[in-house]
Each structure stands twice: as C-alpha cells, then as structure tokens.
Design the sequence.
C-alpha cells in the first residue's frame, strides 16, 4: 500500500486503570471504504474519538496523510481534512436543513457570519450549500427545521454536515443505527454515492451494510485490531468467527 491516508501505530488509551485501546494498528488506504466492527464495548467509539481529536492517546501515533495528528484538537484535525459524525444525532434542531449544511461550508472557507453580507462570498457559499442539500437528497426539505425531520432524514443531514467542511477522510459512527430496512438501504446508497471521491471509515453493527458497502474491514476486539481484510477474508477468518461473527458469517 502507498502511504495510508490514515494510520494508527500502537495506539493505547486508558481511562484510569481501564485500558480500553491496547495497541491498535490500522492503515486505511486513500479512497477506500473501511469498516471497524467488533463486539459491544470493544472500543470502537473510543477509537473514533482518538482519531478525530476528542481524546488524546495515552501512547502511540496517529497519522493523517503521513502527518502526526495525535495531540491535535478536533478543529485542527478537521482543518487538515478529517471530519466525523456521531453515534447520536448531532444536528442543530432549530436551524433549517440548508442552514445546518451552510455552517460547515462557511467553516471550509473560513467565512464568518459578518462577512456573509458580502454578496460574492454569500453567493458562493449558498450555491455550495444548496448543491450539498441536493446531494443528500433533502432538496424537498431545504427550509424545514432539522428538528422537524424524520429520524432517517436527520441522519442524512448529519452525513451532509460531515461532508460540508470538504474533508477528504470521513468517519461515520453507526450511520444506520435505529433505521428500518428500507431506510438502511437508502442510507447505504447515499453513503456509496457521497463517498465516491473520499475515504470512508465507518463503525457499523449491521453486517449487511458492512459487507455490502466496504472494501476492507478491521475487527476490533478488547481494544486491539484482531484482523484486517476484504469482506471475503474477514468472513473466512477463523479467529474473527470465534471472537465475534460466530455462526452468522459461516
Ligand atoms: N470517557 C471514558 N471514561 C471511562 N471509560 C470509558 C470512556 N469512554 C469509553 N469508556 C469505556 O470504554 C469501553 C469501550 O467503549 P466504546 O464506546 O468505545 O465501545 P464500542 O465498541 O463503541 O461499543 P458499542 O458498540 O456498544 O458502541 C467501555 O467499557 C466504556 O465504558
């Protein structure tokens, strides 16, 4: 693999005496869709928090496009091209769909609200925000308050917000949690489309989504990556079957 766009080397994270991440190794290639799976409590969300700068590792290295990012705060990491969504819906309920997306687009350009009065800046930002609203298929809900959207629409908006800062590496934490089968299928299609020219790292419990969407999968068990491989390799991996997938993948 050429230089991975995202790389973890021997990453550890302890909360007091609780060693949650214990030497995680991960290499995500540019342009791939990569899932992190593992049992409840394995440390998947903690891993995301470490990568995105919500937590600082106790030790180890995290690199984005070859550059150390461990120890940087979330905003700095975002500016370097990594953006994440959260397990819990995280939209501004009292702002419209369009306004939610526009905040991220403005951040991308470093535009403050007072500068928005300048017509040219406003036009460019509005055009990009509108294009993204359309890409996440919420054009019909453009002026609806985010708090009034259906749950699955809120999750789609959240993906839009994650993309709005223009980041190259997108982290999505359980994007289909709580969705019906139909909503899940729609969300998968959306993710496939929106991440065509991006790198996606996703934590997901729905194995149909993982095996259908992702190029490679890493299995996290007790804070360590037990295996990384293609869906076929992971399905066939005896250790993974024993530790996690069980009968389901046989
Ligand atoms: N800030 C924290 N302080 C102390 N313990 C924490 C903290 N954050 C997470 N943990 C612990 O770390 C362990 C792993 O949690 P984490 O949420 O990362 O797992 P997960 O794999 O995402 O689980 P799930 O699939 O259930 O979401 C849990 O035992 C949790 O209680």
Sequence:
């Amino acid at each position: 693999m050429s230089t991975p766009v995202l790389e973890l080397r021997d990453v550890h994270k302890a909360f007091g005496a609780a060693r949650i991440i214990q030497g995680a190794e991960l290499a995500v290639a540019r342009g791939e869709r990569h899932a992190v799976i593992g049992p409840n409590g394995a440390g998947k969300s903690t891993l995301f928090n470490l990568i995105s700068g919500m937590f600082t590792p106790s030790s180890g290295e995290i690199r984005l496009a070859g550059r150390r990012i461990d120890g940087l705060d979330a905003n700095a990491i975002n500016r370097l091209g990594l953006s994440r969504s959260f397990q819990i819906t995280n939209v501004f309920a009292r702002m419209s769909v369009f306004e939610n997306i526009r905040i991220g687009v403005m951040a991308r350009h470093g535009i403050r609200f007072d500068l928005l009065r300048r017509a040219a800046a406003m036009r460019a930002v509005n055009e990009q925000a509108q294009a993204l609203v359309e890409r996440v298929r919420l054009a019909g809900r453009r002026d609806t308050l985010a708090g009034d959207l259906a749950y699955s629409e809120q999750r789609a908006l959240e993906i839009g917000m994650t993309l709005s800062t223009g980041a190259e590496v997108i982290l999505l934490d359980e994007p289909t949690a709580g969705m019906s089968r139909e909503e899940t299928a729609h969300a998968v299609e959306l993710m496939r489309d929106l991440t065509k020219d991006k790198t996606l790292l996703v934590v997901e419990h729905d194995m149909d989504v993982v095996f259908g969407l992702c190029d490679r999968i890493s299995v996290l068990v007790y804070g360590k990556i037990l295996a990384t491989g293609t869906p076929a390799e992971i399905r066939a991996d005896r250790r993974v079957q024993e530790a996690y997938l069980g009968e389901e993948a046989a």
About this structure: The domain at 6-86+170-175+199-249 is CATH 3.40.50.300 (Rossmann fold). The mean pLDDT is 90.
